[in-house]
Structures are given as structure tokens and as C-alpha cells.
Amino acid sequence: MNWEAFWLTVRLAALVSTLLIAIGIPIAYWLTYSRWRWKFMVEAAVALPIVLPPTVLGFYVLVGLGSRGPLGRWWESLTGHTLAFTFEGLVIGSLLYSLPFAVQPFAASFGAVDRKLLHASASLGHSPVQTFRRIVLPLSKAGLVTGFALSFAHTLGEFGVVLMVGGNIPGVTRTISIDIYDQVQTANYSSANQTALVLLIISFVVLSVVYGVNRRPWVVGPWR
Amino acid sequence: MTVLYKLAASLILCASLAAAKEITVAAAADMSSALPLLVEAYTKKTGQTVKLSFGASGNLTNQIRNGAPFDVFFSADEEYPQQLIAEGLAAKGTLYRYAVGRLVLWVPSDSPLDLSKLGIKALLDPSVKKISIANPATAPYGRAAAATLRHFGIYDQVSSRLVVGENISQAAQFVESGNAQAGLIALSHALAPAMKDKGRYWTVPLDAYPTLNQAAVVLSKSKQPDAARRFIDFLRTPEAASLLTSYGFSLPAEKHVSGERTK
Questions:
Q1: What is the pTM of this model?
Q2: Residue B260 in this model has a pLDDT that exceeds 80
Q3: Is the Cβ–Cβ distance between A24 and A106 less than 8 Å?
């Protein structure tokens, strides 16, 4: 069991799912309440990473964030190094990769809040922001936990993108799934077995939390 | 329903007919440019079709151990086929050393480094922030790269800047795309059309790393060992040899061929 890779991956997943709360809530809010006629295209774009092959994302990240891409050059002029082969690069790749797993549960739970409550809140003089903070967010707790947990678990298991843009650097970009891959490729099955079992257990626990949260009867959410 | 059933049956039949004719070759990633051309020439000559799978030699060896359905294995390091022979997974008499692979230090065209003057010391230049190599655990060129860095006594100085490709093709791609500023890659990649005009290289002297003896072998699981063997024999023709040379593979010395081949 490679603990360095394990903690690196946990750090990556925790950071990404936390950032996705900050990024995902405004996006989900907009997706829930906007009446723009082209909104469906934004919804499709947000959902893209669910169906997009990780190699496609990995390719774009490597080329776009590389030292010859505009974003990569900008980052390099800012920090002196490129994004490929760095922890920051993995964070950006994972943010894209796990975005829908946060935004979709958020948006679903926002949308399930009874509009009458929003109208009542507005008629009592609350601004939309106050209404969102005091009515929508508390009623969407299950959706927020679900989005956080799913994006955490999804990042934990990320493989293709990391393989393409990580460069397999111990302690920086060698994540747990890359470590399992390396162990299997060198026929080191007992180590691969241990690590795989740990990932299996964590994934099961995370999903149990998701389903557990969503079946609690006093939570008003989209999932019963 | 019957129509669907017949369609499915004929599809399966077609697939199995094609499979009976075609041979499948697992090949080291350093052959990813040269081998398709060899196959093209071979198919034109004999009508035999050949399917190719590329990867790090170590990865392919592991796949073969786990039952991958390959007929022939081209390894960048003779050690892997030898292991497979010892394990009864490859046919001993068919092992053929077809070339010696060369390692080069490659930099993109826009690099300020003067390789002919600096040689391996170019890697110590502060402008080189990342150096791509193949994974030493599974790729012979990765091992050669690590050995080279140790040979010149600079491994510890550069180890924090190494980025590791899953196989030698990915290591080449890392430096070709400019994400690494220098790479220790296969000469066959440096000479391939995709990279030839994009950079410069310095050939690492042969005494800096254990010789990369490239060897092909017919696998025991092959259902068409004769067709597989004929493809390996094609490598001995002048036509194949000149193509391999043009991709930077030096041909095996005659004593290797006659002295160590068991027939």
C-alpha cells in the first residue's frame, strides 16, 4: 500500500470537491432559476464530462494547459512553470472532470424547493440572495452532501486524465489509481490487491453516505 | 428474430474467418512508427494481414502472462522474451534479435540548448524544468534513461525534475508537446516523421546504459505459429533491415545472430 499516493489522492479529492461547492453552487443556482432559452446548451456543456472519454479531456488539458496553449502560457508567465505534471494541473483537470457530479445534485435539490416558499420569502421583503441563503440552501442539504460526496469519490477514482497529464511523479501526481496501474503492470498483485480493496471500501462508504443522506425522511430533497 | 439471428451468426463467422487469417503483434512502443511500415510492405508482398498493439515492453509482457491473445511479441529488451520463454509462454527457437535500440536526448527546436556542445549536461541547464523519460519499471528505455543519468553522475541532480511516461511514446509526446523541455527518448521517435522536424537530438553513447537488444518471439498461445514465424523471418530481409536502419535501429552484429540463436 502506497500511503504517499493515498494521501495525495485524498488531498486532491478533498480540495476538488470543496472547490466544486464554491464553483458549483452559483452554476447550479443559475441553471435552476434562469429562463434563458439557450439554457439547455449550458446544461449539456456542464454534463459533458459524464460522457466525454477521459482521454479527450486529458488531451485538451495537456495541449490547452501545456506550455504552447494560451492558458498554459499565461499560467507559466504567472508562476514560472507549466500546469502539466503539477498538482495544480491535476486540480484543474479534476475540477472539469467532476463538475457535473457536483452541479447536477445541487441543481436538482434547488429545483425541488417549493416555489411558494420563495414567493412567500420575497413577499416578506427578502432579497433573492437572502432567500437563497435562508430557504433554498437549508432545504438542499441532502443535494449538497450528495454533490460533495460524489465529486469526491469521482476524483478519487480518476485515471485517464491523470495518466495523460500527470507524469507519474511520486508525491505530486502519482495518484492511487496510477499506483494500482503501475503495481498491476509490474505484476505486483498483492500490493495492487491491498490498494484496490482500500479504494473499494472507501467508494462503498461514500456511496452509502450519499444514499443514506437521501433516504432520511425529514430531508426535503429530490430523492424520496 | 431469425433475421437478426442469422445476421449475428454471419457476423461472428466473418469475424472468426478474419481472425484465422490475421496475426496479432504486440510491440514495444519504440516500433510505433517503423512497424506499421514493415507490416504494410509485408502485407503487400504476402497478403498476410497483421494487427498491431503497442505498449511498454513490460506492460505487454504482463498482458501476455495474463493470457493476451498475441501471436508475436516485439520487445525493446531481450530480457522480457527470455522470461516468457523460461515461463513456457514463448517458443524458444523463434527468438530473434532484430536490432539494437538507441537512446537520445531530445529537445524541441525552440530550445536554446546547444546539445552538441553540452551533451547530457544540457539537462543541468536551469531552463530545463521537466525531463521526460519512460517508466523504468516497465519500459526498457526508461531503464536505459535512468542508467544513463547514473552513468554521468547526474541522477540525483535531476531526479526531482523527471516526469515519467507510461511508455516511451508518451515520454516522447511529453517533450514533443513542449510540456517537458528535454526528454530521453528512443532514436526511432526522434527520426519519425511526426518529430523529425520539431527538434534536435544528441545520441547517448552506447556505453552509458545496458544495450537495448530488441527481440521478437512467437508466443506459445499463438494458433498460427507458422504465420507468426514467417513474419519474424521477414525482418531478416534486406528490405526490412533497411527500413529499420532508417528509423535508427542498428542491426544486430552477425555473431549475435548466429551465436545466441537456438534453432
A1: 0.80
A2: no
A3: yes
Look at A66 and B179 and tell me if their CB atoms are within 8 Å: yes
Task: Tell me the nearest-neighbour CA distance from B159 into chain A, angstroms.
Answer: 10
Interface test with A, best of B166, B179, B181, B184 (most A CBs within 10 A): B179
Q: Measured between CB atoms, which of B62, B129, B164 is closest to A185?
A: B62
- Could you read off the pLDDT of B165-203 as tens digits, one per residue? 999 999 999 999 888 999 999 999 999 998 999 999 999
- Mean pLDDT of each 10-residue bin along chain A, 224 residues long: 91 97 96 92 94 90 78 83 85 94 95 91 90 92 94 92 85 90 84 92 92 71 54
Band the pLDDT of B17: cuts 50, 70, 90: very low
CB < 8 Å to A70, chain B? none
- Same domain? For B107 and B198 the reply is yes
A167 and B165 in contact by Cβ < 8 A? yes
| Residues of the domain holding B179 | 103-203
Residue B239 in any domain: the answer is: yes
pLDDT for position A198: 92
- Sort out which chain B residues have CB atoms less than 8 A from A86's CB and list them: none
Count structural domains, chain A. 1
Residue B234 identity? F
Residue B78 covered by a domain:
yes
Q: Determine, yes or no, domain membership for A17.
A: yes
Q: Which CATH number does the domain housing residue A60 bear? A: 1.10.3720.10
Flag if B178 and A167 touch (Cβ within 8 Å): no
Written as nine digits, the cell of A95 is 475540477
Instruction: Give contacts of B135 with chain A, Cβ < 8 Å.
Output: 168, 182
Chain B residues touching residue A185 (CB < 8 angstroms): 56, 58-59, 62, 137-138
pLDDT above 70 (res B137):
yes
CB contact at 8 A, A32 and A110: yes
Contact yes or no for B124/B154 (Cβ under 8 A): yes
Check: complex ipTM more than 0.85:
no
Within a domain: B208: no
Residue whose entry in the numeric block shows the C-alpha cell 526522434: B190
> Residue B100 corresponds to which amino acid?
V
Q: Confirm or reject contact between B145 and chain A (CB < 8 A).
A: no
Strands of chain B (E only): list them: 23-28, 50-55, 72-75, 96-101, 103-108, 131-134, 162-165, 182-186, 199-203, 212-218
